[in-house]
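for the recovery benchmark. tokens below, seq after
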């Protein structure tokens, strides 16, 4: 008798979470996670931006809004969204900011299939074109888009620097690149704090396939953008509006974790028993923007 598919998936989760000897690539991670998301009404995968937001769905949409506003997204724009997940932000951006066209690239075929079906159900295929493709080898001509955005995904790319180069190539003069991205915090001089930071970063980097070449702080992040030719570079930490408020929200609403796959609930609940600074102490979260000069 063949092993039931749900049981095989449960074993895969256990392997991903608890096997320290196996390294998973990014597509395999997201194929496994599938649509097991914590949001209630959408399929957002980001951690959210928290100011006055009352739900995880609202915070996830607020982060999408922050990226769009930093990009000055609006009518007339042709937008390239790399790593679009299940297209929640693309649907939101189209309805709220009204760009002329959004093209998406994503290397995870299972996400592309779900996202394309959602866009088709809404009758938006003529305005949102989602394809399987790489952010580091974009199948687009030079000087063809006005905005390139990467919402909580550029840390996966092999490498982020190669993505910057490709973004610069496909942007028209005057075009904008905006990323919401996870990078390591500068290490503390206190050895105890430094150990906690290293543990925090390694836990995330090992489970979510972050290449070693992408491990650098926000000062280096800005230097790499400038080295690719970008101007008006800004790399601002927004971690205080991401990690601690998310941790606080989940602590107040532990039922949110019931939407996740059962294998992930135990480590998630264990994390909620720790302080936010212990869990996220090694992680910075940046909103980065840059312009391709005319």
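predicted aa per position
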């Amino acid at each position: 008798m063949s092993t039931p598919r749900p049981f095989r998936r449960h074993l895969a989760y256990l392997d991903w979470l608890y096997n320290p000897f196996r390294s998973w690539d990014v597509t395999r991670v997201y194929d496994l996670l599938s649509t097991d998301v914590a949001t209630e009404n959408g399929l957002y995968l980001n951690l959210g931006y928290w100011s006055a937001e009352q739900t995880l769905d609202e915070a996830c949409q607020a982060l999408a809004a922050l990226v769009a506003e930093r990009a000055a997204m609006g009518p007339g724009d042709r937008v390239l969204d790399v790593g679009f997940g299940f297209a929640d932000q693309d649907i939101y951006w189209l309805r709220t900011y009204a760009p002329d066209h959004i093209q998406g690239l994503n290397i995870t075929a299972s996400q592309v299939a779900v996202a394309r079906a959602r866009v088709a159900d809404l009758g938006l295929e003529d305005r949102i074109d989602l394809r399987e493709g790489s952010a580091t080898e974009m199948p687009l001509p030079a000087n063809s888009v006005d905005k390139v955005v990467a919402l909580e995904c550029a840390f996966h790319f092999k490498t982020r620097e190669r993505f910057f180069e490709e973004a610069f190539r496909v942007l028209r003069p005057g075009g904008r690149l905006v990323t919401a991205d996870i990078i390591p915090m500068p290490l503390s001089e206190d050895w105890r704090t430094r150990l906690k930071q290293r543990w925090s970063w390694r836990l995330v980097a090992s489970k979510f396939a972050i290449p070693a070449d992408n491990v650098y702080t926000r000062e280096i992040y800005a230097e790499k953008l400038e080295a690719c030719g970008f101007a008006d570079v800004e790399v601002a930490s927004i971690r205080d509006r991401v990690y601690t408020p998310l941790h606080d929200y989940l602590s107040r609403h532990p039922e949110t974790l019931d939407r996740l796959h059962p294998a992930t609930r135990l480590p998630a609940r264990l994390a909620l028993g720790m302080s936010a600074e212990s869990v996220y102490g090694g992680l910075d979260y940046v909103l980065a923007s840059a312009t391709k000069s005319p």
